[in-house]
Amino acid sequence: MLKRGLITSCVTALAFQANAQDGVAPTYNLYGTTGLIDMPSAQSAADGELAFAFSKIGHQQRNTLTFQITPRFSGSFRYTVTKDDGFSDGDNIGINFDRSFDLQYRFVDEGKYRPAISVGFRDILGTGQYGSEYFVATKNVLPTVRVTGGIGWGRMGTYNGFTNPLAIFGDSFKTRPSGYDEQGGEFNSGQWFKGNAAFFGGVEWRANEKLSLKAEYSSDAYTGFYGERSGIEHKSPFNFGLDYKVTENAHLAAYYAYGSTFALQFNYAVNPKNPPAPSGYDNAPTPVLVRPSRATNPKAWTTGWISNPETPNALEANMKRALGTEGLELEGFKYTKTSIVIHYRNNTYWTEAQAIGRAARAATRGLPNSVETLTLVPVVNGMATTAVTLNRTDMENLENVPDASWKSYVRANIQDAALLNNDGIRDIEDAYPNLTWGLGPYMDIGLFDPSAPFRMEIGAELSGTYEPSPGVLLSGALRKRVVGNLDDADRPSDSTLPHVRSDYGLYDKYGDPGITYLTAEYFRRPGPSLYTRVSAGLLEEMFAGVSGEILWKPTDSRLAMGLEMNYTYQRNYDQLFGMLDYSVATGHASAYYTFANGFYGQVDVGRYLAGDVGGTLSVAREFNNGWKIGAYATLTDVSSEDFGEGSFDKGITLEIPLFWALGRPNKTSQEIVIQPISRDGGARLNLSNRLFGLVSNQSEPYLSSQWARFWR
């Protein structure tokens, strides 16, 4: 049933491609979204594009991350620093820090005579100082010229405004309620599309391949407290400037705004679909060994080898050597005259489909000719997850034909490895115990501390994992700082909740050197579709204790469900073996769903580290090359007042696989969590081996989306 998902994905991708916009690629404005100078446009960036914009205008420095979530829908997170003597933010006299989120959706595509049309919300989730809503249209009128026009409300309705045309739906649209929220983090939906409206617009001309000139009429009068403190004297609604493409990814822009102010901007965009390193850096895979024809050489197909007492040792040696050349480790196997089941460990390839393809091709070089059926079983932390069965004849016939990936996928049989009869499996004696370790650099980044919005440290990390037997793991990591300023954070927590996260500065200050984690874990499969984990020890940087988890994940289903229970103690700030006087029982019931086109959804409901109860919604998009970009929001029974600044926990997550940058096989990734502010409400344990993350990429929905790498 799920194999139809691959066809659906291909059709959807073609539909998305058909919706791509014509004309000149969009540029980014001073707010870090697609647009002109200060105003937005209706255009969307390339699907999946991630853009970082750094702008300076007046007293304001705007730092924006924008992600083109789908071909039509984009989201932005902005951190603005405004320096003026009239501001006060705690100890930072004369400085104001503001966090805001934007959303934009293009609901009409550009046509021959029709412009693209989008609806957008600026500062939809923040203090509201930039709060605006708008409809905007953009049309490429010439190959190098596009025009934009729109109508805005809120900040975009403050210059030359007029009575809200939406007042025909009721008098409540005539007046915009005051919506500034010093704490931030709330949806000020009572303001949306209310109050005066105003028109804005502009034109952009691409003078050559690198230079674009812009002119716009802005509907933002820069009035009110935050407008006046911005350092921008509004003398004119007209803004002018240029955008210069330094490289394919980087742009520099300079503007003269509002008749009084110069502005500068640097923008850098990356697209996970376009790796910086060519994909050809992988070592060439072992080619399939084509067997001689049974008709012309029947002796080559005899099955007498099955009774040879040396066969088990010979097959083991052949399989270990063949898989080893592909960076895979043999864990066990069983065989008949015509079939073989191979259990292997993949420590090399990010995508399991690529590991399966490499294992299958390598196996053809170490097996008797009569073996026709190959079953490949990846093993993760001692758990056999999925069984992929292939016909050797198909491997021989399809290796070099067009559309080999699709044809091999539809002929493969994918099922739960727990359904196999494992009687007679020959375990590899030297597969366990298994020790892996490494010494290398690490980098930690701290964002949005009001005392210093950006902090970083670089150091050395010694990490290792010892597996004495299948499913038993002893692992840990020790870090030593070399350089950085994370330990300078000395802003005391003002939280009224237990300080489960807000004392992060104390851990950075005193935890050097520090034990990041030190755990003993046990993994097993009690039955089909079921996985379990028990962990004990120093579970993460701030908490120790015991954690147990059970996951229901059918191999052929997009849905998974899990239950996790923990009892934890808060670790001492030195990140060694001491504990503070705080303990808590936490736990969550979780549901996971794999959507089409690389989207994942997760809902967690339960009790968090501060003792609060509620739920978390997470959404992420994973690209075929391993990039994962997502967002989450947590609401609990902690009120916004008790939670403090930000009102509730939320953030953006990035996971960047190392092989994307290097172009070589590697399972390491860099995970980054961007939180507007780190508070205590909605805080959950940071466990590294949760079951869904371990086993989901061996399930059929994931394998189907990644099968293009089977022949890589």
Molecular structure report:
This protein has 712 residues and is mainly beta. The protein folds into three domains: 23-270, Beta Barrel (Porin); 281-428, no CATH class; 434-703, Porin (Beta Barrel), CATH 2.40.160. Helix 3 crosses helix 4. The longest helix is centred in the N-terminal third of the chain and has 15 residues, at 4-18. It is globular.
**CATH class membership of the largest domain:** Mainly Beta
* Intertermini distance: 26 Å
Q: What is the CATH architecture descriptor of the largest domain?
A: Beta Barrel
Looking at CATH, which topology of the largest domain would you report? Porin
| Helical fraction | 10-25%
Biggest beta sheet summary: 13 strands, antiparallel
Query: Could you report the average pLDDT, rounded to the nearest whole number?
Result: 89
The main sheet orders its strands as 22-23-24-25-26-27-28-29-30-31-32-33-34
Assembly type of the shown chains?
single chain
Number of alpha- plus pi-helical segments: 11
Number of strands: 34
Structural class: mainly beta
- Give me the Rg, rounded: 29 Å
Poorly predicted runs: 1-22
- Give the amount of beta strand, in percent: 35-45%
**Which overall shape is indicated by the principal axes computed on the Cα atoms?**
globular
How many separate domains? 3
